[in-house]
Amino acid sequence: MEGMAGRTLVVDALNLAFRWKHAGRTDFRNDYVATVVSLAASYKCSNVIITADWGSSTYRKDILPEYKQNRKEKYDQQTEEEAQAFKDFFEEYEETLELLAEKYTVLRFKGVEADDLAAHLVKQKTKYKLDEIWLISSDRDWDLLIQEGVSRFSYVTRKEVTIENWSEHYNVAPEEYISFKCLTGDKGDNVPGITGIGPKRAEQLIKDYGDAMTIYDNVPIPGHYKYIQELNANADVLLKNYELMDLVTYCDDAIGKDNISEIQGRMV
């Protein structure tokens, strides 16, 4: 693909679209494109790749059938007016993706989430000649992708997360962030952590024992606190959460071989 070298903007398509959903807009396609153009100019990105969800992850549903079930239940409780608003929003979103595809590379596959597509691009950034990547998403899961040459901008907080300013955002090292998430879980995605372990306790466990795999290897951990007992009784949750949340390691499994081949054909 010509012109791929240099800075690349990777956009979390649906995440950014919710900027207009929250404002009650259903006529945002041109503003969306203008925002992407503006962000690309701000970050001096000569290349833009749009990563788009197409339903929830088939890969994760197979591991955890309850994955994102909380969102479905929330939508099922919508009023008729709210349901219509969502329908109008998604119709405009689909039109927006078509408009974006006229100008940029849009990656989207049924049963695959944008997180995994972005992770694949980061994982293969050398192969795809993506020298420096700016991720556009308010989803902190995408911070699992932060490394040298990969940073994130949130349109919600208007803040950047980079390898240089990481410690301003987190009390664990970048390579420890996946262990932090495995211990605490992800309420937004309906992924349970270890009962009783929140951010502070997760940070302390990582400090005392190392990463989540090392914590798993040290079970049973001595202690009479209830959260320690929960950890000892449910340590397998850590292994399952690695499969669910370690984007870089499992992104290709989540995307699937045929889709990976298509991406490679478009990117190389």
Structure description:
This protein is an alpha/beta fold and 268 residues long. The protein folds into 2 domains: 7-169, 3-Layer(aba) Sandwich (Rossmann fold); 174-244, DNA polymerase, domain 1, CATH 1.10.150. It has 13 helices and 8 strands. The strands form 2 sheets. The chain has a 6-stranded mixed beta sheet with strand order 3-2-1-4-5-6, with helices on both faces. Helix 7 packs across helix 8 (199-209). The longest helix has 22 residues, at 80-101. The chain is globular and about 60 Å long.
Describe this protein with a few key phrases:
268 residues; alpha/beta; Rossmann fold; DNA polymerase, domain 1; 2 domains; 6-stranded mixed sheet; two-stranded antiparallel sheet
List the helices and strands and how they pair.
Layout: E1 7-12, H1 13-21, H2 29-42, E2 47-52, H3 58-63, H4 69-76, H5 80-101, E3 105-108, H6 114-123, E4 132-136, E5 150-153, E6 160-161, H7 177-184, E7 185-186, E8 191-192, H8 199-209, H9 212-218, H10 226-233, H11 236-245, H12 247-255, H13 257-267
Parallel strand pairs: 1-2, 1-4, 2-3, 4-5
Antiparallel strand pairs: 5-6, 7-8
Helix pairs in contact: 1-5, 2-5, 6-12, 7-8, 7-11
Write a compact overview of the structure shown.
With 268 residues, this protein is α/β, with parallel strands linked by helices. It has helices at residues 13-21, 29-42, 58-63, 69-76, 80-101, 114-123, 177-184, 199-209, 212-218, 226-233, 236-245, 247-255, 257-267, and strands at 7-12, 47-52, 105-108, 132-136, 150-153, 160-161, 185-186, 191-192. The mean pLDDT is 95.
